[in-house]
Amino acid sequence: MNRAIWIVSITAAVILGAVGIFQCKSKVGPPPPPLIAIEKMGQLVSLMVKVSDIVELTENRALDIPWSTWEFRYAGTKVLMIVKGDCSIATDVGAAKFESIDNAKRTVTVVLPAPKVLQARVNHAPPSQGGSHLYAINNQGIEAIIPGSANRTKAIEAALSLAQKKIEDAGKSPDVVSAAKENTEHVLKNSLTALGWSASFKWK
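The structure corresponding to this sequence follows.
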């Protein structure tokens, strides 16, 4: 979700919270925390990670050797891929819980689920535009004289699957998760401050 959309979302959340506060104040005095305003944010994307990596993979052709755990590798295709991609990290603020609510002091503790990978994407744009590309494809053994391209296709598909996993794993690193938490707290704290509340945060 781009920056402009988040600005609109946060603004809408602030307005909803302000309306809720006005209505509560007119009926029952000090309002509760603006729970609806936060929950309506849904999946809050707080970090986008750019990933560059290298995938090296060999898809072998082999024959099992009877009565043993050995195999005879007689051919194969080796793929070397330059991987480019990105990974968005989000927190499901719709699942937030609230503790230690003090209406008089207007303070609250927000309990949040840990940030997770929302989307991991291999960039398939041309290399000139910063996309991934196959750097080398090499035949091994007698691969070059075996009819058909099935093993070559299988090797490329396996390399792409590994590239996807590398990008997803990049979004799960402790440093990335820590940065996503910090950014999420910053956004929510500013939103709550605008509504007159002071917030602290706990992560599940």
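The CA atoms of residues 79 and 124 lie 16 Å apart.
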